[in-house]
Amino acid sequence: MNGQTPMGLAAAAAAAARPCRRRLLSSASTSAASKTAAGTATRLFPKLPHPHQPPYGRRLPFLVSAASQSQAGPATPVPVPVPSDPRAAVSGNLPFFDRVLFPDSFPLETPPAREEEDAAAVQTDEAVEPAVPLREETETEREAWRLLRRAVVSYCGEPVGTVAAEDPECTETLNYDQVFIRDFVPSALAFLMRGETEIVRNFLLHTLQLQSWEKTVDCYSPGQGLMPASFKIRTVPLDENNEGFEEVLDPDFGEAAIGRVAPVDSGLWWIILLRAYCKITGDNALLERVDVQTGIQLILSLCLADGFDMFPTLLVTDGSCMIDRRMGIHGHPLEIQALFYSALRCSREMLVVNNGSKNLIRAINNRLSALSFHIREYYWVDMKKINEIYRYKTEEYSHDATNKFNIYPEQIPSWLVDWIPEKGGYLIGNLQPAHMDFRFFSLGNLWAIASSLTTPKQAEGILSLIEEKWDDLVANMPLKICYPAMEDDEWRIITGSDPKNTPWSYHNGGSWPTLLWQFTLACIKMGRPELARRAIAVAEERLSDDKWPEYYDTRSGRFIGKQSRSYQTWTIAGFLTSKMLLENPELASILTCDEDLELLEGCACCLSTKRTRCSRRAAKSHSG
Ligand code: GLC
Questions:
Q1: pLDDT digit string (tens) for 498-528?
Q2: CB of 198 within 8 A of CB of 270?
Q3: Measuring from atom 4 of ligand 1, which residue has the nearest CA?
Q4: Which residues are bridge partners to 483 per DSSP?
Q5: Ligand 1 near 185 CB (within 6 A)
Q6: How far does the centroid of ligand 1 lie from the alpha carbon of residue 77, in Å?
């Protein structure tokens, strides 16, 4: 089985046993000791004991000590290979992992204005020294910090995340009062760059616990490594007398989500955030914990499991990422591929190399090289490539067909013929047999730059296209989620007549200010900070006056979105993160990956003499 390690398998098997109530995990540093002193395994989360069974059918699977385990019954310890000196094993076997050192000026900005109303909500880590003011924060930044802190939620007295939106005027909260994994990423980055690391650590460890939760939709259980889309903290009575209460985490893996779609991106974001956290804090102790290592492996085991695929890209259903409703992105959407590539690169740096993980690391390397070749070669379009497709022959049956996916030239949409600039290009949204989705999706393209999924030349080309098409992609609010919108019959058929995704609204060509931080990151990586500065200035002009909306509508992003929430946390956090990244561009490296030419050397297709289409030379052909 591809990518399964004995450790991953054992953990998966132990955790998969129903009912999934307990999972025995201990940090690598305590495992060795616990061999001799039973019962010393650390209880990780929750910090406050939750000794009673909540009155629900499922509960948080605790980390239990060996002593409590024997009382609890038949749980079997996970046979995890323990290095004799775990610390040495980690540092010695993490050759890629470099900590990013804070610049001298860290923390980066002035402390928050502690107004009466938010003083209670301020939860700055004790360890962080008072910030040395670098420059006066603008009023908009001060407001953003106040709002971000207001969105923080606590579990057992500790900050664990931020709610999706805190809109006092909105009576219908839906699930916007939950902590979404993907939404929390920019919040986490803002806190990390400000030296407030505890909330991120708590978030990472709590969501890790949720990973092994029992999850079912109509008696069917998805894979063990799945991370939830979101979670909520509920207060429940300890017993029937309502005399005491406890807090429980209630995750949603898609069982309650609109369309019941599994959030494929959650686990990938979790891995990306874990690396950012570890790089900025140097918290290797967290990284070497067996539960953390197992968590990474479970996510990857799901992603790398063998299936019927002919492509190295991840096959997913519609709505399995930021675009979480039907928008015709099922198959191999770019956003998922870029996050997948990034998560594989991050995992390769973070996994402890030992007998249990070496097969997985080999599988990661193979997948990385095949994936980068596939995307660089088949997803990339520019003027020249579109002209090639325009002249494609079809129905080619052979190993060395030029038009491998049988794309009919008639598929080239009329808007694209005029739209594609002479200079630059982009990665298309999706590639399937006889189907290229030519829409431009911002997040996938930006994350492909950040993670080095594209060649450096392609990355430059994408930014150059964004600059050239500024009025379409940025205009009055950065950044269009995708371009162009689907209209008329196409909208009816592909979205299922979704009234929220009408043309130029929400996921269908709406403008999402949260994408600003990913744009800033890509600009910094490519040495184009002035482009990001320009976009931030556009956003700063409106966001506060407009109450920090979730998204904007119309072709040029002029109106606040039809059903847009106000005080959307990732809008606020995205703005702050963009500003902080621009001021401290060296911190971008906690999120980015550099071009790795060795990956192209390792491409498995090089071994084949007959099927020579995938060659190192071909993969590098765009990198000049
Ligand atoms: C919407 C977005 C999704 C986001 C959620 C919470 O459903 O499509 O990406 O995570 O709102 O903000």
A1: 999 999 999 999 999 999 999 999 999 999 9
A2: no
A3: 322
A4: 440
A5: no
A6: 38
